[in-house]
TrEMBL record, chains A, B:
Cited PANTHER family: TRANSCRIPTIONAL REGULATOR, MARR FAMILY, TRANSCRIPTIONAL REGULATORY PROTEIN
Coiled-coil zones: none
Residue ranges constituting the HTH marR-type domain according to the UniProt record: 17-146
UniProt protein name: MarR family transcriptional regulator
Amino acid sequence: MNGSMWDGRDDLADVITSDLSRRLSTATVLFHHAVAERLGLGPTDHKCLDLLYERGAMTGSELAAITGLTTGAVTGVVARLEKARHLTREPDPRDGRKQILRPVFDASPEIVEVFGSIRDDAAGLVAGFDDHELAAIAEFISRSIDFSYRRVAIMRTEAISRVKEKDHDR
Amino acid sequence: MNGSMWDGRDDLADVITSDLSRRLSTATVLFHHAVAERLGLGPTDHKCLDLLYERGAMTGSELAAITGLTTGAVTGVVARLEKARHLTREPDPRDGRKQILRPVFDASPEIVEVFGSIRDDAAGLVAGFDDHELAAIAEFISRSIDFSYRRVAIMRTEAISRVKEKDHDR
DNA sequence: CCAAGTAGCTTAGATGCTAAGCGAAATAGG
DNA sequence: CCTATTTCGCTTAGCATCTAAGCTACTTGG
């Protein structure tokens, strides 16, 4: 239960990939949901907004493709986020069908308060590590990000080829 | 966009806490949701099941406290997970009101297939790191888990003291 | 035994997602 | 230039799931 009783070599690697990463995943999902509630957003809205912050402006159909939502759901997400002033919509000058969704960065005092406090706390995550250790951590996180998106893509394509196989033991 | 062009000391720490952790968070949420869909579960059901796997058997009210769900929502979650054979319910011999929710570990071939493939892929996450680097990574993940649960607890208590302040610009 | 607290379930209402289909705009082919 | 196809975002109907409130059953303390 404490965090400092590992001994072996490959054991530690296994602990990271099997146990720690899984626990971090669950904790992250809970955290993400709590932040969404704190901001008055649903989890889906928060997820979409995060993607807009990370990747910059994009269209609704891109957002649907990344999140796996239908375009109908994205319409609702965009309408709520726009009403709450978290994004703006502009028509694409080169394609009249598209609308460019642009995240609003001049955050409200509400958001500054929440994330300011979080950011201060987050400094403790990297306290005491030297450059070499930080580089290893950064590399691990980068690989984890790639891993997640890679597996999401694989699961989506599997889902397509699996089509419909429902009512399997009702 | 590539993952190997950092130079400074504290810059790297900032990149980890501000940028990389956030991107990992978003990727993790998408991943978690995709796994849930792959298993035929909703995101909430999957989150609860993960908690049961991690922490072992618990009661419904504990699950509600950890996830922030109402007890009514937990009732629905438990009913669905039980029907899908992901958990069993036993009455608590010492308290007739409680029901002990026990996760089922003899997973279906479905689950073995999904997570077997994922586990093989995950081995690449730690490839090439030495013991020292792995220890740093493990420590960082442990801190991140603690961080997430700590901030969730803080946000929940803030939400209580904030009570009702709705309809703020409809 | 009775009062108060706790655990889980039920109900009503609201929200948000999917699936299917629409019109408008861009592209391809003749 | 003109039509056919594709793509984009929106609308609608239906459904799943969450919250809030109240209920019953059980436990605990006087």
